[in-house]
């Protein structure tokens, strides 16, 4: 074999050309579909142009090859020789065209991407604008309702906290950075005895104790709060109040202190009660001790007095020895009175109780003392309730009570004055006040005036048992005795501030004073 | 603004295509007329054709590279388009070689040229072998177009589903 046939290549050429034309048109169809689906998509546009160029190229080339094969088959090779340059030229041109379309693809794609990115941003901005617009419209529509709701909530909250503020039994205050009170509740006004609302009060200046004030200011400045600070403050009327205080500093956005706020509990009553309890316990202990001592002394004292009197029978009256025995007898009797008083204080003395009218008891005491009081320039004012309930008690001991109190009052008014005795009945207790216009009780002895043997009188003028006995008798009758000095509302300045003793005694249920039942 | 850009692109592409068509028409209608002031010899045709193959191959290579580096690879349609680029580039190479080999064959190498009984004289030389093989260029051209069809069909389906390509 000297040669190899090229027929297979001719067949491949013929069939391939036909298939290429078909496939090129199929590609054109799909690309057209893509362009119709998404007309704005640059890539589909590019593929559309590419397919057009490829289809024309495939058509030109395929038809050219098929025509060539057919013409050769029909022995028309000369015609093909005429057409051949034309077909080649078209094919060359189309190849260059397809290349040009491809080469410019990236530039178009970049521009398309840039435009698409900006379009997406614009669309996103539009979407957000629409959403904002819708939200704005909704807000605008509901604005009135929202404002109304907020106002109602705010009002509710304000009312809640205002009620808490006003109705609290604790002191609540707000002050500015200088400590000047800007707002304070009713309880606070009452506790500090504040007057009109417009009055400017500096809270730290109310502190009595400078150390507590320094602690209050220092801790607020450095720690921002002060907790459970026990302070004694002076009310605007001069009275002392004991407050348990918790306070905070209020800051602005920059951390500067712009004011203070605090809550305080008035501990005055609790403190007084505690002191009274302590005093009561002390008095009970002292009474117990006094009772023991009195019993022990009473027996030898009786023996001394007995033997003294026996000896006096054997000695001639008027002799020096008889006079000495008289002194012993007198001093022994004085000792027995003291022992008797101690027993009364400690409630060990026997009682003879009955239903008594206190107005009459007081009147009997005054009948005895009034003459002496008059000599010392002391007047007595009686403010007796007309229908006073009866008290079940020992009339003799109760007389002793008022005798002691009136004597004390007289002693406190060496230059004369006035004693007011007031009786009244409230609830189930009888209240008796003995008020004088004397020099009052000094602060330093207030805690000791009921102590046995405590006296401010000169030596020999008093035993110091008067108020102790009084205290013991009132306790024995189930009552209370308190004193106040100076007298509230006396307005007195200087020495004559006065003292008032408040006595309460339980009354007999429903019984009214009547002459028949009086002791 | 988007509409304006689209208009610019369309106008630009139309201009390019218009120029191509004009040149094509001139070549078709008067291939032998002296439209140029300078006359050119016969080899110029085959040179231009061969250069067109090189340009086409380069353009396809560029399109392949560009689609490889862009995000469009996420769709299988782009992979088929890359196959199209590769196969058509190979076809261009084959066609280029075929034309070159034909130029190196003598009149004695092709028996009954221009007829159905055309044969290639033996013995086979590398030139003859390459020529013979490159005459079967449709074995590359047709699969390339098939890849293009599959690629576009994939894009169509994805676009119909509303997916991103």
Tally of individual helices of chain A: 11
Helix fraction of chain A by DSSP (H/I, runs of at least 4): 55-70%
- Spatial sequence of strands, sheet with the most strands of chain B: 1-2
Architecture of the largest domain in chain A in CATH?
2-Layer Sandwich
Mean pLDDT across all amino acids of chain A: 84
User: Based on DSSP secondary structure assignment, what is the total number of beta strands of chain B?
Assistant: 2
- Oligomer state of the chains in this structure: heterodimer
In total, the number of strands of chain A is 13
Low-confidence stretches of chain A: 511-519
Approximately how much beta-strand content do the residues of chain A carry? 15-25%
Beta-strand content bin of chain B: under 5%
Q: Estimate the global geometry of chain B from the Cα principal axes.
A: globular
The structural class of chain A is: alpha+beta
Mean pLDDT of chain B: 79
> How would a textbook summarize the main sheet of chain A?
5 strands, antiparallel
DSSP summary: helix tally of chain B: 5
Q: In percent, how helical is the residue content of chain B?
A: over 70%
CATH T-level topology of the largest domain in chain A: Heat Shock Protein 90
Q: What is the assigned CATH homologous superfamily of the largest domain in chain A?
A: Histidine kinase-like ATPase, C-terminal domain
Topology:
The complex is a heterodimer of chains A (519) and B (165).
Chain A: E1 3-5, H1 7-37, H2 42-73, H3 77-103, H4 105-167, E2 171-176, E3 181-184, H5 186-191, H6 210-222, E4 225-234, E5 240-251, E6 257-266, H7 268-314, H8 320-345, E7 353-356, H9 358-375, E8 378-383, E9 391-394, H10 395-412, E10 417-426, E11 429-436, H11 466-476, E12 480-484, E13 499-506
Parallel strand pairs in A: 8-10
Antiparallel strand pairs in A: 2-3, 2-6, 4-5, 5-6, 7-9, 10-11, 11-13, 12-13
Helix pairs in contact in A: 1-2, 2-3, 7-8, 8-11, 9-10, 10-11
Chain B: H1 2-29, H2 43-69, H3 76-104, E1 110-111, E2 119-121, H4 126-134, H5 138-161
Antiparallel strand pairs in B: 1-2
